[in-house]
Design a protein that fits this description.
This protein is α/β, with parallel strands linked by helices and 237 residues long. It is built from seven helices and ten strands. It has a single domain, classed as Spore Coat Polysaccharide Biosynthesis Protein SpsA, Chain A, CATH 3.90.550. Helix 1 links the parallel strand 1 and strand 2.
Protein backbone atom coordinates (compact mmCIF):
# COMPACT_ATOMS: atom_id res chain seq x y z
CA UNK A 1 0.00 0.00 0.00
CA UNK A 2 1.46 3.34 -1.06
CA UNK A 3 0.95 6.68 0.65
CA UNK A 4 1.56 9.89 -1.27
CA UNK A 5 2.60 12.93 0.75
CA UNK A 6 3.23 16.30 -0.83
CA UNK A 7 5.77 18.48 0.97
CA UNK A 8 4.23 21.93 0.65
CA UNK A 9 5.34 25.45 1.42
CA UNK A 10 2.17 27.57 1.80
CA UNK A 11 3.85 30.36 -0.18
CA UNK A 12 3.64 28.12 -3.25
CA UNK A 13 -0.13 27.67 -3.54
CA UNK A 14 -0.11 27.94 -7.34
CA UNK A 15 2.62 25.31 -7.56
CA UNK A 16 0.51 22.95 -5.47
CA UNK A 17 -2.60 23.58 -7.53
CA UNK A 18 -0.65 22.86 -10.72
CA UNK A 19 0.82 19.63 -9.34
CA UNK A 20 -2.38 18.16 -7.93
CA UNK A 21 -4.32 18.95 -11.11
CA UNK A 22 -1.99 16.74 -13.14
CA UNK A 23 -1.56 13.80 -10.75
CA UNK A 24 -3.52 10.58 -11.21
CA UNK A 25 -4.68 10.72 -7.60
CA UNK A 26 -7.22 7.91 -8.08
CA UNK A 27 -4.22 5.55 -8.12
CA UNK A 28 -2.99 6.41 -4.63
CA UNK A 29 -4.11 4.52 -1.51
CA UNK A 30 -3.61 7.38 0.95
CA UNK A 31 -2.92 11.05 0.29
CA UNK A 32 -1.64 13.87 2.51
CA UNK A 33 -0.48 17.43 2.00
CA UNK A 34 1.98 18.53 4.67
CA UNK A 35 2.58 22.25 5.17
CA UNK A 36 5.88 23.58 6.48
CA UNK A 37 7.70 26.92 6.27
CA UNK A 38 10.67 26.17 8.54
CA UNK A 39 13.10 24.42 6.19
CA UNK A 40 13.26 21.37 3.95
CA UNK A 41 14.43 19.05 6.74
CA UNK A 42 11.50 20.06 8.91
CA UNK A 43 9.11 19.51 6.01
CA UNK A 44 10.53 16.08 5.27
CA UNK A 45 10.30 15.11 8.94
CA UNK A 46 6.61 16.03 9.00
CA UNK A 47 6.05 14.04 5.81
CA UNK A 48 7.64 10.99 7.41
CA UNK A 49 5.62 11.47 10.58
CA UNK A 50 2.42 11.57 8.53
CA UNK A 51 2.57 7.80 8.00
CA UNK A 52 0.00 6.56 10.52
CA UNK A 53 -1.82 3.79 8.69
CA UNK A 54 -0.21 0.44 9.63
CA UNK A 55 -1.13 -0.94 6.19
CA UNK A 56 1.11 1.53 4.37
CA UNK A 57 4.25 -0.21 3.08
CA UNK A 58 5.77 2.62 1.03
CA UNK A 59 5.86 6.39 1.30
CA UNK A 60 6.12 8.52 -1.82
CA UNK A 61 7.15 12.13 -1.23
CA UNK A 62 6.72 14.86 -3.83
CA UNK A 63 7.82 18.41 -3.26
CA UNK A 64 5.19 20.88 -4.40
CA UNK A 65 7.36 22.41 -7.14
CA UNK A 66 7.60 19.45 -9.51
CA UNK A 67 5.96 18.82 -12.86
CA UNK A 68 4.86 15.18 -13.19
CA UNK A 69 4.74 13.04 -16.29
CA UNK A 70 1.50 11.30 -17.23
CA UNK A 71 0.46 8.35 -15.03
CA UNK A 72 3.12 9.16 -12.41
CA UNK A 73 1.41 7.41 -9.51
CA UNK A 74 0.39 4.33 -11.46
CA UNK A 75 3.96 4.08 -12.74
CA UNK A 76 5.32 4.46 -9.21
CA UNK A 77 3.23 1.55 -7.95
CA UNK A 78 4.68 -0.53 -10.76
CA UNK A 79 8.23 0.46 -9.76
CA UNK A 80 7.55 -0.55 -6.15
CA UNK A 81 6.60 -4.03 -7.30
CA UNK A 82 9.91 -4.31 -9.13
CA UNK A 83 12.04 -2.91 -6.27
CA UNK A 84 10.02 -3.33 -3.06
CA UNK A 85 13.00 -3.06 -0.70
CA UNK A 86 14.84 -0.21 -2.40
CA UNK A 87 14.92 3.57 -2.27
CA UNK A 88 13.70 4.95 -5.60
CA UNK A 89 14.24 8.47 -6.86
CA UNK A 90 11.94 9.53 -9.68
CA UNK A 91 14.20 12.51 -10.41
CA UNK A 92 17.90 12.89 -11.10
CA UNK A 93 20.08 15.94 -11.62
CA UNK A 94 23.01 13.61 -12.24
CA UNK A 95 24.11 11.88 -15.42
CA UNK A 96 21.67 9.19 -16.51
CA UNK A 97 22.91 9.34 -20.10
CA UNK A 98 24.82 6.06 -19.78
CA UNK A 99 21.91 3.75 -18.93
CA UNK A 100 19.73 5.41 -21.56
CA UNK A 101 22.45 5.01 -24.19
CA UNK A 102 22.41 1.23 -23.65
CA UNK A 103 18.62 0.95 -23.44
CA UNK A 104 18.51 0.64 -19.67
CA UNK A 105 16.20 2.60 -17.41
CA UNK A 106 17.95 2.53 -14.06
CA UNK A 107 21.11 3.83 -12.46
CA UNK A 108 22.24 3.48 -8.85
CA UNK A 109 23.79 6.34 -6.90
CA UNK A 110 25.38 6.67 -3.46
CA UNK A 111 23.67 9.91 -2.37
CA UNK A 112 20.14 11.26 -2.75
CA UNK A 113 21.09 14.88 -3.37
CA UNK A 114 18.58 17.08 -5.13
CA UNK A 115 15.64 14.99 -4.01
CA UNK A 116 12.18 16.21 -4.92
CA UNK A 117 10.33 12.98 -5.81
CA UNK A 118 11.18 9.69 -4.14
CA UNK A 119 9.82 6.48 -2.65
CA UNK A 120 10.93 4.81 0.59
CA UNK A 121 9.90 1.56 2.25
CA UNK A 122 8.15 2.45 5.50
CA UNK A 123 10.81 0.65 7.57
CA UNK A 124 13.37 3.20 6.36
CA UNK A 125 10.97 6.06 7.06
CA UNK A 126 10.70 4.94 10.69
CA UNK A 127 14.45 4.35 10.92
CA UNK A 128 15.20 7.86 9.67
CA UNK A 129 13.07 9.47 12.38
CA UNK A 130 15.30 7.82 14.98
CA UNK A 131 18.54 8.23 13.04
CA UNK A 132 18.21 11.98 12.55
CA UNK A 133 18.41 12.57 16.30
CA UNK A 134 22.17 12.09 15.82
CA UNK A 135 22.45 14.86 13.21
CA UNK A 136 23.38 18.44 14.09
CA UNK A 137 20.35 20.74 14.12
CA UNK A 138 22.04 23.25 11.83
CA UNK A 139 22.02 20.72 8.98
CA UNK A 140 18.66 21.76 7.56
CA UNK A 141 18.83 20.34 4.02
CA UNK A 142 16.52 17.35 3.68
CA UNK A 143 18.61 15.66 0.98
CA UNK A 144 21.81 15.90 3.04
CA UNK A 145 20.19 14.45 6.15
CA UNK A 146 18.50 11.57 4.36
CA UNK A 147 21.66 10.84 2.36
CA UNK A 148 23.59 10.60 5.64
CA UNK A 149 21.42 7.75 6.82
CA UNK A 150 21.48 5.95 3.48
CA UNK A 151 25.26 6.28 3.28
CA UNK A 152 25.61 5.00 6.85
CA UNK A 153 23.47 1.99 5.94
CA UNK A 154 25.43 1.56 2.68
CA UNK A 155 22.08 1.80 0.91
CA UNK A 156 22.19 2.64 -2.79
CA UNK A 157 19.46 4.70 -4.40
CA UNK A 158 17.82 3.61 -7.64
CA UNK A 159 17.35 6.45 -10.13
CA UNK A 160 14.79 6.23 -12.88
CA UNK A 161 16.21 6.93 -16.33
CA UNK A 162 14.62 9.12 -17.50
CA UNK A 163 13.36 11.31 -14.65
CA UNK A 164 9.60 11.14 -14.23
CA UNK A 165 9.25 14.66 -12.85
CA UNK A 166 10.84 18.00 -13.66
CA UNK A 167 11.79 20.42 -10.91
CA UNK A 168 10.17 23.79 -11.70
CA UNK A 169 12.00 25.44 -8.85
CA UNK A 170 12.57 28.84 -10.42
CA UNK A 171 11.06 31.98 -8.89
CA UNK A 172 12.04 34.25 -11.80
CA UNK A 173 12.63 33.85 -15.51
CA UNK A 174 15.73 36.01 -15.97
CA UNK A 175 19.37 35.10 -15.46
CA UNK A 176 21.64 38.06 -14.84
CA UNK A 177 24.98 36.27 -15.11
CA UNK A 178 26.61 32.87 -15.14
CA UNK A 179 27.91 33.06 -11.58
CA UNK A 180 25.86 30.21 -10.23
CA UNK A 181 27.29 28.51 -7.12
CA UNK A 182 28.07 24.81 -7.38
CA UNK A 183 26.60 22.67 -4.62
CA UNK A 184 27.17 18.90 -4.48
CA UNK A 185 28.61 19.02 -8.02
CA UNK A 186 25.53 20.68 -9.53
CA UNK A 187 24.53 24.19 -10.58
CA UNK A 188 20.86 23.86 -11.45
CA UNK A 189 18.35 21.60 -9.73
CA UNK A 190 16.63 20.46 -12.90
CA UNK A 191 16.39 16.99 -14.40
CA UNK A 192 19.25 15.66 -16.49
CA UNK A 193 16.80 13.67 -18.62
CA UNK A 194 13.09 14.37 -18.19
CA UNK A 195 10.63 12.01 -19.85
CA UNK A 196 8.41 14.95 -20.79
CA UNK A 197 5.15 16.31 -19.48
CA UNK A 198 3.03 14.68 -22.19
CA UNK A 199 4.66 11.24 -21.91
CA UNK A 200 3.70 8.35 -19.64
CA UNK A 201 6.02 6.32 -17.44
CA UNK A 202 3.88 3.30 -18.32
CA UNK A 203 5.36 3.34 -21.81
CA UNK A 204 8.77 2.30 -20.46
CA UNK A 205 9.97 -1.25 -19.84
CA UNK A 206 11.29 -0.78 -16.31
CA UNK A 207 12.72 -4.30 -16.17
CA UNK A 208 15.58 -3.09 -18.38
CA UNK A 209 18.53 -2.18 -16.19
CA UNK A 210 17.64 -4.06 -13.03
CA UNK A 211 20.72 -6.23 -13.60
CA UNK A 212 24.20 -4.84 -14.27
CA UNK A 213 22.83 -1.44 -13.33
CA UNK A 214 25.16 1.49 -14.16
CA UNK A 215 26.52 3.14 -11.01
CA UNK A 216 27.10 6.81 -10.19
CA UNK A 217 29.35 7.86 -7.30
CA UNK A 218 29.20 11.44 -6.06
CA UNK A 219 30.04 11.12 -2.38
CA UNK A 220 33.31 10.55 -0.57
CA UNK A 221 33.74 7.87 2.06
CA UNK A 222 32.55 9.13 5.45
CA UNK A 223 32.15 12.70 4.09
CA UNK A 224 29.02 13.03 6.22
CA UNK A 225 30.62 12.25 9.60
CA UNK A 226 31.22 15.92 10.40
CA UNK A 227 27.48 16.53 10.45
CA UNK A 228 26.83 14.26 13.43
CA UNK A 229 26.50 15.60 16.95
CA UNK A 230 29.63 15.09 19.05
CA UNK A 231 27.80 12.83 21.48
CA UNK A 232 26.23 10.77 18.69
CA UNK A 233 26.07 7.04 19.29
CA UNK A 234 26.96 6.55 15.63
CA UNK A 235 30.33 8.31 16.02
CA UNK A 236 31.07 6.68 19.36
CA UNK A 237 30.36 3.24 17.91
Amino acid sequence: MMQLTIQHNPKRKRYLKLLTSFLDLDEVDEFHIIKDEVNSASGMRKCFQSVKNPNVTHLMVLQDDVLPCKDLLKTSKKLIKLLPDQVISLFSIYDTDKPLSISKHWAVIDRLYGLCAYILPVDLVKEYLEFEKNIKDRIFADDVRLSMMLAHLKKKIYLTAPSLVEHICWDRSSQKDNKVPIENAIKFRIARNYIGFENSGLEIDWTKGLTDTPSIKIGQKHDYIRHFKKDSDIINN
